Amino acid sequence: MKPLTFALFRTPHAPDAQPRAGGASLDVLRFMAASFILLFHYGSTAPVDLATLLPVFRQGWLATDFFLLLSGYILSRAYGQRLVTSHMRRTHFFLRRFARLWPSHILVLLVFGAFVLASSVAGFAPNHAEKYGAADFIAQAFLVHGWGIMRAESWNTPTWTLSALLICYGLFSVYVPFVYKRSLPVMIGLSLAVLLIAHGLALGLAHHPLVDLPFAWALLRAIPLFLLGNLIERMTAGLRVSKPVFWGSLALAFIAISGLSLLPRHALTDSLILSLLGLVLAVSGGVTFHENLVTHRMGRASFALFLTHSLVGAIWFGLSPRIMAHFNLGVMAQWSLWIAGVLVAIVTAFLFDALIDKPLSQRISRLSFVKGGI
After folding, report:
1. pTM
2. Which of the residues 201, 253, 308, 321 has the least number of beta carbons within 10 Å of its own beta carbon?
3. Tens digit of pLDDT for each residue in 347-362?
4. What is the CA radius of gyration of the chain?
5. Which residues 6+ apart lie within 8 Å of 120 measured at CB?
């Protein structure tokens, strides 16, 4: 007798398809990384700053650096073989990646611009009005704001990583044949060299630690971390781990990272944390969990959450102080209002993915110049 199942939790893949190693875990991991970024950005608006309650939230760079490592890991897994075997042209690869990012990005940015304009006209000028200039808007619209030409974060702040990743994608399509089939010792050596050179350049040029370089040095931060993500994927491509090993490694990494984040900042502790994040990637890509619609949607919604949470936060936490002052809310009510803002951002991400991002990306992917390449 077949077990009873519900349509909501059926896997989106063929019924007889075997679960992929890393399929479900990487989807969930992407969502958790986006959620950490959300909590870091919203943390200072809580009744008590989250960084005071949980010191790990003082290290907001953890989520961003992990996102860059994860991007390199997933791109290597998804496209490396096809680029190496010439089953996909470099221009086609780059065009597909750009077409995946830009339409939803520009849509959110236009809504952001409309919100700022409307609120200003209504007499509710946004906080930090200097972040909403026309030049910054244009640079962000064309996804060039993370290339070192703009000096400060603005508008939809997290999208600087998308801008930097466009450069990473272009470089990846060129260097992937040179790193794809190297021996394990060579790749370990390359990883150490990348890390040492990146630390040296960050300290020598920017006079700042690599892992949380200022916005103007976005490419110097993004490129080495993306490359390290590629190398981690190649070094652990055949790795398979059991669920107990996965959960144990995850717990160990979380405890160690939390402890290291309490120590004074140093290139050594930063490198250890990056190594632990790499461990999380490796075991997540090597464990097999059953995939279903929930895990698949979490993976997709991670991009939407990353893209929309700044806009949702600007609206929600722009109104919250006025609501709290008008109703003279107590501490518990303030926490409820803040938690509601977090939940609204998450729900908005799932709705944006289902109603806008997924249909839009499917429509764009069917365009002849995207489908066939150039």
Report:
1. 0.88
2. 321
3. 999 999 999 999 998 8
4. 21
5. 126, 129
